């Protein structure tokens, strides 16, 4: 079944051997249809107008889904202060995924060295993959790094505001995020968008928020007529110690994911995640509740490209051929349909004696 294309074979030969078993068929179809645009780099794509339209309308549906949350909308560029990133302990868990930003900070002499190294690289190499990166020896780290997850920039901002109000806070964020994991699987991009609702408050407030969003996230996926499967999950912690941390995260049921088949023949792809960080970020940035206790935090993350890809995977590459109900949800009466879905959620919760 895994017929490997030349592109895939070349990429596998170029070092992404772990990906040799992923079926590139769906990726090829997306590129051939022009929905994604190849840059020559695995996991880095352009998006077509149609792809962006679907993603934007999905984003609107998510806004409707959280319309009663009184959330504060905050948008940051896809970079954060390096010191905040260092404080976050991201490097302890995922050093291999982080992206740092470097820039030339030298003088005329350094500039000449850079140009000489670049000139040598351009004349000496036969292919892009073999090209020397010696010019980068002139680059120095800047004070900013790429955002690893959409919610990271908000914690230090919330901490600077002082104690949380009694009802806590809910923040709505959307950002491009970076993860260094080049892959042929279109569901595993290096730069992608995450929409998140983030909750800061007591343990009870955060747990209630997470359960509510597991229900609402499942509702959205059902309205999109995609197969819903919720599963206990763990983050891909790095190294030998990583397995212990991952096991502990599972044992405490801190992370759930909503899985949908996209392109990975080895399994389904996490399209939504529901995370409880306990006091992790609260303790790092000294975020406190109204009563002085360390704040708990949690977030629901929507993988915008992944859900968009799942729609193309399950309903076809031509949006005009998508099921009427799905088209009506995205291009029709989004607000009314989401409100109706939320009402039925409430009704079934009341019927079963209330949610968590
Ligand atoms: Zn988050």
UniProtKB/TrEMBL annotation:
Asked if Ligase is a keyword of the record, the answer is yes
What are the entry keywords? Ligase
> EC number(s) on record?
6.2.1.-
Q: Main EC class of this protein?
A: ligase
Span of the signal peptide = none
The record ties this protein, via SUPFAM superfamilies, to: Class II aaRS and biotin synthetases
From the Swiss-Prot or TrEMBL record, give the protein name. Answer: Amino acid--[acyl-carrier-protein] ligase
Q: Which organism is it from?
A: Paraburkholderia fynbosensis
């Amino acid at each position: 079944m895994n017929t490997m294309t030349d592109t895939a074979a070349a990429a596998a030969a170029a070092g992404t051997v772990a990906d040799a078993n992923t079926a590139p068929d769906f990726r090829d179809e997306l590129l051939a249809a022009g929905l994604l645009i190849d840059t020559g780099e695995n996991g880095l794509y352009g998006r077509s107008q149609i792809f962006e339209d679907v993603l934007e309308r999905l984003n609107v549906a998510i806004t409707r889904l959280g319309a009663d949350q009184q959330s504060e909308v905050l948008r940051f560029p896809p970079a954060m202060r390096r010191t905040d990133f260092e404080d976050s302990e991201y490097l302890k868990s995922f050093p291999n995924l982080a992206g740092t930003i470097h820039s030339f900070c030298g003088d005329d002499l350094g500039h000449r060295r850079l140009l000489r190294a670049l000139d040598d690289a351009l004349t000496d190499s036969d292919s892009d993959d073999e090209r020397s990166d010696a010019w980068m020896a002139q680059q120095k780290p800047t004070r900013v790094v790429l955002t690893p997850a959409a919610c990271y920039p908000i914690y230090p901002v919330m901490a600077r505001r002082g104690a949380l109000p009694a009802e806590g806070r809910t923040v709505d964020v959307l950002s491009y995020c970076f993860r260094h994991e080049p892959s042929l699987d279109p569901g595993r991009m290096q730069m992608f968008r995450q929409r998140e609702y983030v909750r800061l408050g007591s343990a009870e407030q955060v747990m209630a928020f997470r359960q509510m969003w597991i229900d609402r996230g499942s509702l959205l996926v059902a309205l999109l007529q995609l197969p819903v499967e919720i599963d206990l999950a763990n983050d891909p912690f790095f190294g030998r110690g990583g397995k212990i941390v991952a096991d502990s995260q599972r044992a405490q049921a801190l992370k759930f994911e909503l899985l949908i088949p996209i392109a990975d023949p080895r399994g389904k792809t996490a399209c939504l995640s529901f995370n409880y960080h306990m006091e992790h970020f609260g303790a790092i940035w000294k975020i406190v509740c109204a009563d002085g206790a360390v704040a708990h935090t949690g977030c629901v993350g929507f993988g915008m490209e992944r859900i968009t890809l799942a729609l193309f995977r399950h309903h076809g590459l031509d949006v005009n051929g998508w099921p009427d109900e799905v088209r009506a949800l995205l291009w029709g009466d989004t607000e009314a349909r989401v409100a109706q879905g939320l009402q039925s959620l409430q009704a079934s919760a009341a019927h079963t004696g209330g949610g968590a």
